[in-house]
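To illustrate this point, what follows is a protein record of this kind.

___
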Amino acid sequence: MDMPLINRENKLEAFQLLYQITPYIAFGFMAANEAIFQASQGKNSIHIVDLGMQHTLQWSSLIRAFVSSPEGPPMVRITGLTDNEDNSKLQTSMNVLLHKYVKESRGNLKEILLSVKKLSPTAFTVVEQDTNHNGPFFLGRFLESLHYYSAIFDSLEACMPRNSQQRMKIERLHFAEEILNIVAYEGPERIERHERVDQWRRQLGRAGFQVMPLKCTSQIRMMLSVYDCDGYTLSSEKGNLLLGWKGRPVIMSSAWQVASV
């Protein structure tokens, strides 16, 4: 496979298909937006700083929630941080900024989290693949990837035929490059460095954050019922929500606030 032939438009198309066909992306959006909405109650204006989404799909539902609020909508400002030189496409494409800084030493991640803390955010949300793809050894990453992506592909198998063009686009244009980067690249070229929820909890705790328990399980379960596919599982771990396939966690969503002294 000639990976460079996969352009930004192809990736966005595959991401949108994944968003439409599975609940993984919608789950992250819903949980994060609910935390932001609750943290914004009573405020006349809010400023959202987006540290890594490649698109603006998340924000339309949050804005609709603000509009329908009995208090009326606050003034909303969204700042997207990106290293994309083509700023004209900022509204539809943002380069990933968190993963590539989650190094084995985690020193750069600590600096980022401390910088976020200095902003004194009302809420800080983290949506991440719940798996350990940040190990220094190939074999460990390979085995972890094998189990993790097997669960994802099994969920695709349950709702889409193997000859589905949509499924092939999701696998080839979205997941293939991600898997390739995890198992075949080292050093600064390896930017897909996913961490489990317990590791995020430790890192955020050391940086001075405490968890804000997410309380939107009923809304998420209602959302899952829309998908004609039995196998998705929802669990809570110390205030963080985990969406998985047949008990295997796939995506975690969490919200944090600066710890009180």
User: Anything to note?
Assistant: Helices lie at 8-21, 24-39, 59-67, 107-118, 138-159, 165-184, 197-206, 217-225. Residues 28 and 44 are 25 Å apart (CA to CA). The beta strands are 45-50, 75-80, 124-129, 209-211, 232-237, 240-245, 248-258. The two ends are 53 Å apart (CA to CA).
